[in-house]
Specification:
There is one protein chain. With about 400 residues, the chain is an alpha/beta fold. It has two domains: about 280 residues, Aminopeptidase; about 110 residues, Alpha-Beta Plaits, CATH 3.30.70. It is built from nine helices and 16 strands. An eight-stranded mixed beta sheet has the order 1-2-4-3-5-16-6-15, with helices on both faces. The longest helix is centred in the first third of the chain and has 24 residues. The two termini are about 20 Å apart. The mean pLDDT is about 95. The structure holds zinc ion (ZN) (2 copies). One zinc ion (ZN) binds next to loops.
Length: about 400
Amino acid sequence: MRDRIRELVEKVKNELVEMRHHFHAHPEPSFEEYETTKFIANKLKEYGVDDIRVGCGGKEAGVIATIRGKSEKPMIALRADIDALRMAEENESLPYRSKNEGVMHACGHDAHTAVLLATAKVLSQIKEELPGSVRLIFQPAEENAAGAKEIIKAGGLDGVDAIAGLHVWAYYPSGVVGFRKGPFFAAVDMIELYVRGKGGHGAAPQFAVDPIVIASNIILALQTIVSREVDPIEPAVVSICKIEGGTAFNIIPEEVKLVGTIRTFSPQTRERVVSRVEEIATNVAKAMRGSVKFVDYYSTPALINDSKFTEFASNIAKELYGENNVVEADLNMGGEDFSLYLEKVPGTFFLLGTGNKEKGTDKPHHNPNFNVDDDALPRGVELLVNIAYEFLRRGSS
Ligand SMILES: [Zn+2]
Ligand SMILES: [Zn+2]
């Protein structure tokens, strides 16, 4: 079967790259992936995929589809995220650069979408020999962590026994694959602090309570949580990334807004860091005659890969590409809402290297010059097809 799959992947290569370029030229931001969704649904129809459901979360964005093989069960899900970012592309000379001004596929989700479509095509071609079913999840809104929960609500995981997904990775050489058992991506909290003071004249601070000075003290005090309160071998980050306050050079404002993020792995550390941010901010403000309103938009749990499934998938990668091309991925303080699927079913999220200096595809993700090495993408297809086929054949990982 491996040779047969390789042959079919070889045949789908040109279409895969064409589709990637199409998505790159027509990026749509989170939960506005309407044209992308139509394109995906049409392709799946063309490939003869049995069951195609469009939309989730009350929007016509995202697709949940199923390829039925010889039997309904077991069922493995494969997921791609399909959204782009609100940022201007600077790849001036790229023939397929973004045609939607101010929106760009700068994370590689164009590649994920094309890879999963090509995977669907290959799997449809071997449908008669599939000892189970494959659920295809084209998830909208990964970047703002809103999509996975809507896919789950829409029944995306119903009947699913395991799940796999990949992210292209500019930091690995093209074609190198990275796996990690257990904790992989961090839990994400988005926090907002409203520091209240009392407005007044910049020349008469004695009649005011200056929220800018209070906010400054809070920001510095928060830095002691990770350095002084968290176990040094436990990863954690507290970053204040946005400060909003004031209107003129001589007016002490009423309020300053601080926006930031907390990244942790264990639920205990998460709870502790979040509550300490609130306590420190509240009490620093109190000591300085102000007050604080604290809001925590808890976003995604830590992504925890199933060890057995990850071992199973990485062994397939080693058999296909050799030990040298398969690495152990590092812990990542970024977030990925694939974590929500992994809370429900076992599976693995892995990285596919697309970094190539000569081709200029080694820029960081979310950089205005980001791009993906197309030559690495067939590996993504071959891996997903083999992982799905092997899982269904064995009935487990
Ligand atoms: Zn991203
Ligand atoms: Zn991404």
